[in-house]
Amino acid sequence: MISLLLALAAAPPVEGEHATLQACEMTGGGWVCHYTIPAVTLVGAANAPPPRITLAPAPASASPQVPQPRAEDAAEAARQVKLIADCADAGWMSLCLPKDRREARRLRDAATARKALRTQVTQLLSENKCSEAVKSALKAGDLTLAREAQAFCAP
To answer: What's the start-to-end Cα distance of the chain, in Å?
Structure first.
């Protein structure tokens, strides 16, 4: 076992690109993350040993770079989800402070508005009305959604 670990440690590192994280979001079912996977080229001939896998670099203009989510942002998002679940509809006997209830209701209303906007933009995109979808997202002040809609419409 130790010799296997030493052999792995002494092996040269794997070269080529790896999948890169583009964005993550919290949904009702848990976290959903989107990755960019580099192109893979299989090289080999018939009746030959298994082919080599060569990772080709992704084209530079394939998609705009999305900033990596920070750990603090993920922790804050988890705190907000928990606060909404615990305090948004809490009764007077709950352990939530009044300021927590107000914040939870405000966060819940903002999440509902974001969901409605995303539904509206998705509807416009499904009807192939790209410019209206981007305008709608920009009007609401959601630059991230506007970028996603614009990237979806780009050829």
So the answer is: 51
From the number of C-beta atoms within 10 Å of its C-beta (0-12, 13-18, 19+), residue 46 rates as exposed
Q: 143-155 pLDDT, tens per residue? A: 999 999 999 988 6
Say what angle helices 71-87 and 98-126 make with each other, to 10 degrees.
110
Dig out the tokens for 24 from the structure. Answer: 């993550």
Q: Residue 102 corresponds to which tokens in the numbers above?
A: 């107000």
Residue from 109, 95, 101 nearest 83 by CA: 101
Could you tell me the two tokens for 66? 């999305």
**What burial class does residue 77 get, using C-beta atoms within 10 Å of its C-beta: 0-12 exposed, 13-18 middle, 19+ buried?**
middle
Tens digit of each residue's pLDDT (9 = 90 or more) over 106-143: 999 999 999 999 999 999 999 999 999 999 999 999 99
DSSP codes of every residue in 117-147: HHHHHHHHHHTT-HHHHHHHHHHTT-HHHHH
